[in-house]
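Q: I'm writing up a methods section and want to include an example of the input and output format. Could you take the sequence below and give the corresponding predicted structure tokens, formatted cleanly so I can copy it straight into the document?
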Amino acid sequence: MIAVNPYDQRVTAILLDFFGSRTPWQRRLWAVGLTLGLREVLEGCEAFQRGVLSERSLKDLCHTVEVTSGQDPGVGSAEQRRLLQETLRHPPRPEGADFRLLQQVLEGIERTYLERWSKAITDPDARPQEERAARAIATHLLDSGFSSAYLHRWWSYRIQHEPSSRTLAELLEDAHDLVSNPPKRFEILVAFVAAPRSRADMPSEWLTAPRVSDWLRQNNHDSTGIRQGGGMLLNVTARDPWAAIDESLERVERLVARISVGTRSQLQVHQHAWIRGEDKPFNLRRNRRGVEIHALDRENSLYIQTADDGIDAALELIEPLDRGSPGTAVSGGWAAIEALLLGPGDGGDRGVAGDRLASLVACSFPRAELTTLAYAHQLAATDPLAASLTAAPTNRDRAALVAEAILARIPLQLPADSHRLAEQRLQNLLTRPRTVLLDIEQHAKRALRRLYRQRNLVLHWGRMNAVGLRAALRTAAPLVGAGMDRIAHAWFTANTNPLELAARARLRLDLLGSADGCLPVDLLE
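A: Here is the clean output for your methods example:
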């Protein structure tokens, strides 16, 4: 179990939030790590040379990584940090001297990143804040190829169930060993309910229906009731079983697309896949990325077609972002953003649509977090505040009550570390709203600009295996959902145009803290 150390406990609580499948959007991980950022820069240099990315887009990427590296003890010595930042100030040319220097710096950082963090957090006077530490650790592990599901289990066991008591620094040494080990090979059986036959020989991975049944029995799986007409035995190299299933799913999706355009038949895939050595089958479907637009349900608009084709079109375009294959997800997701948030006079910088969505996300943050804490306190407490929350007629009223309690230093009764950390963050936000919310907006902008770059790599380069594609979807999808939820709410309740709503968000963020400003709970009212 984690040692009784407040710093370590707070960092690990944030890590579990970052890896959790049910974490609300405002507590999810919106960033990528330093090593993936450097790999994106190297790929971006080549994309710029081919005319896929603009010089402005590449410079923006380099600047983002430069800023990130300046605050990251995983980079190494002050001299190495200075060298890295100087190199990033001028985008290198592919295969040039600076390009090769970045490659070598990246290799060194990857070898020692978590070891350096393990040492950095042992000094109470110099260690980074909990949020930054958790963000760096989580992004590095995810960017190394591990799945969120595996990492949540790995950390949960060590934090909550391991017999011995250990510090976070010791757990990071284990995590370093985990990353240092090479990926594993997995043998995965994918079965097909129906599969068209090829005129030539079937691929070497193909198994007939009897051989599929034999493989299941030999690997201690019950084949009774499994309807299948054959299958494929895939060999996948991945970090963990869930990551291997994700890789298999992408292979199968490519095969389904090929067959659907190559024949009049359809390849129907069984809902489960099986891994040699694993006791239970795995769901062969993509986990949701967190695009949640609950305004459609709240405003009784699930079945209502709007008078504005743009709103309905955007909702249709955004659907693949939640569970679609990476290429369709990034293309459809960005198309939905452009459809609603680009306007006359925007010129060639189409990324400004993502910046406007980031403003909506920042304005949505206080209400989302305050509402989450309101329900948590209401369930756990029987005090006057809980009674007031129960009687409050709207979410806005509940959020305002919690905000007043936090500013008055009235402690909330919260059942989980995650909630208590959110309470601390809100104390800072409500005391310094403009500073904190502009910082949140900046983080959202980076995530959405990354989505835009990946969209360009897919559409203009056909780069379906871009190094940052899956990370861009992981980080941006919940933010797109949160922003679109506000757009849908404003449209269905007040017929407010998305560009008008974005302008309101920009104005109110800039006026926060002034005589003309409003309360954080009212930013989008």
